[in-house]
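Posted in: Protein Modeling Q&A

I'm a second-year student putting together a small comparison for a lab meeting, and my supervisor asked me to include a predicted structure for Transcriptional regulator, ArsR family. I've never done this before, so apologies if this is the wrong subforum. The sequence is pasted below exactly as I got it from our records. If anyone can share the structure token output, I'd also love a short note on what stands out.
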Amino acid sequence: MASTSDSTPVNAAVEQLLRNPEDNLEAISETADLFKALATPSRLKMLLVLAHGEATVTHIVESTELSQPLVSQHLKFLRGLHLVGVNRIGREAYYSLKDDHVAHIILDALAHTVEGHEH
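Accepted answer (user: helix_wrangler)
Welcome! Here is the predicted structure, written out as tokens:
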């Protein structure tokens, strides 16, 4: 497996992108969209709740102290980016992260921020 200069392992597709970013502007654009999704404290709080597992809108509202309409709006946005999926059981909708990579990105960024404040 290849690695970037700081020894972060990357797969062959990412290695190719690192060498020739102009060859895959769509992947770069989608990555920018991911960072836009993570750019608001409200969505970050919601994604942290979902990093623990499936949750209903009610649970997300209670955990984040955000309004129900705001949570629903953010969930629609996150679903549109394919970051969050929904599993409907009867009348209840359970939301979850579609990809554990998102949780890792958030946790790495939080660790960076917390460690940065300790120094």
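A couple of things worth pointing out for your meeting: Residues 1-7 have pLDDT under 50 and may be disordered. The first strand starts at residue 2 and ends at 3.
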